Amino acid sequence: MTEKQEEIVLERPADNTPPEKLYQRLIEIVRKYRPSEDLSMIEKAYEVAKKQHKDQKRKSGEPYIIHPICVAIILADLQMDRETIAAGLLHDVVEDTGMTLQELEKEFNPDVALLVDGVTKLTQINLDVDKVEQQAENLRKMFVSMAKDIRVVIIKLADRLHNLRTLEYQSPEKRKEKARESLDIYSPLADRLGISKIKIEMDDLSLKYLEPDVYYDLVEKVHFKREAREARIGHIVKDVSKYLHDRGVEAEIKGRVKHFFSIYRKMVNQNKTIDQIYDLFAIRIIVKTLGDCYASLGYIHKMYHPIPGRFKDYIAMPKANMYQSLHTTVIDEEGVPFEVQIRTEEMHRTAEVGIAAHWKYKEQGGSGEKASEAELAKMNWLHQILEWQNDETDSKEFMKLVKSDFNLFNDNVYCFTPSGDVKNLPFGSCPIDFAYAIHSAVGNRMVGAKVNDRLVPIEYILKNGDRVEIITSQNSRGPSRDWLKIVKSTQARNKINQWFRHEQKDENIDRGKELLDRYAKSKGFGLGELTKPEFCDAVIRRYSYQDWNAILASVGRGGLKESQVVSKLIEMRQKEDSRNLDDEAVLQNIEELSKKPELIRKSKSGIIVKGIHDLAVRYAKCCSPVPGDEIVGFVTRGRGITVHRTDCINMMNLPEDERARLIEAEWQGSGDKETYATELQIFTNNRVGQIVDITKLLADANIDIKALSSRVGKNEKATITVSFDIHNKEELAALIGKLRKINGVLDIERAQG
Questions:
Q1: Of residues 43, 62, 96, 345, which has the active-site annotation?
Q2: Helix, strand, coil proportions of the chain in percent (round to 5)?
């Protein structure tokens, strides 16, 4: 047996540990891998951070300085350089204290200031559904910062991990928001960088706050018969150790139980219960050489019966993050399956901390060495994302591309070119995905494909080991829009959309104008009266496009719905009209109405109309506004002020002589206590049990249904109308999101008049 390899562990200090003890632990960790290095920069960073944060507290009541020290400890566990650890200690001083970047650079050096600046910008990311444009733009900024210095994102990952560890002190809404953001963005980033130690802990902590029932059920079931399982693992480790030793293979062998999110993902992807998951526990064999990896695999298959189809060679075909290992699943003498992972010490180090295992910042300063080809290959995915952000003018579409590419539930398939190159594609990919993985020009000129020397249709689902030959033609007219319905890879979808944008931009602009003009006329407006420069600018900002032509082109190609654009233009037109009202006449009407409160209903959460608080109002039944909706008041003859949504069809189609009766209105309260009537139209495929599924979901959400009706058209498409009470728009949006996941649901709309 080899001398035991030092285990890579991310420390999690006990709560209420004094800052001085945490700092001493940080220095101890750094001294282990940098025994002779001058640590004065780290010591100075600690003193500066302690001084800047001296009067600040965390939500837990602890001194704020504990957070940056714990972030620095995580970075030290990853064996990062002193500049990175210093920046970890200082990462919040610019954002949360009075210290400037210029002062930081003067006190330390440009490297530390650059890192702190990068992390400060990243903290602005907020995946709130009500701030989609801001979220998308900040996502762009994040990848640009990463391209300048990858250490920025490693600090951010450490920062996010410690925040997740202390998430219990946040509000329930904040916990879910941060956990979802971590699962969608930061955990996949850690995975792409190969830092499994951070990814695994992030996944489990995110699951704990997003699906607490699932998490604690997994904890209970995994720990059930824990002693028996540990005894079995210990027995297997002992037998394998002796078997390999007797055959001259030096190895370190460890047993482990799979982490909870990994189990949960398999249950979701494979639609299985925990009892049906094969590899709840595994052993890891760490050997000296590459030859020992394959020799050990042969010996393991002699010792235990391998399960067919459960072998993966990630050494010959590494994952996108350069992870390398042999995986096989075998059955022991008691008939219990378990997974075996076999790798060298270097592969193990890379698997645990990824790019941090090699990164010595060689491109600027540092050792002055060039980054190796393997290290550069690790960053190819980042260069691809940066290319997307340059090509994609729509920030929201860019965000969709990234999140789709990062999807944690995606599996991969490995296929070969005729020359033997390996292409790694999402599970379910077709030859079109393969063509665009080679080059966008190959995809754009593709006219057919051969798989294993046999012609196949373009929608053929590729399988592991397929040898794919793409047939191209200079006479090809380019990709078809139908391809977007069958491709699986983000890269292929982006390249196809890019082709249509570039090849048909003028055509799309003309078509966009035509669609907007037609829709505007259906609402009683001419497009010319809606496209004032200030109105167009509001639409450009709302949907994060570069200019008005980009909006028109997006409408023309189907990226934006004409109804979205026209509704926003009409809203801006109505706001301008409301500013030109005769205020004295409207206020006189309001005074007269306020003397007759018996005619109208008191606002539940409070409405502000033209600066007057607690005005008696009624809610329009045609569009059923709820807190969070943009609203407008309408002076109704003899009935007071009626509040409508701004996208209510009745308000959009008001005659010119009636528009003077509109008055600005806004919500005064949050709507968390009172409930408000609303109505949804759910368009579905007609199937037995559809209404049962919908009503069950509403009942589980504690929604009291007021009315429900259903009708089925000739095309076997059903329209289900359901009325109920809700607290606010956020709750309604969450409910609609769940309803959309019901099998057969095609679309959902709110009442609009």
A1: 96
A2: 50, 15, 30
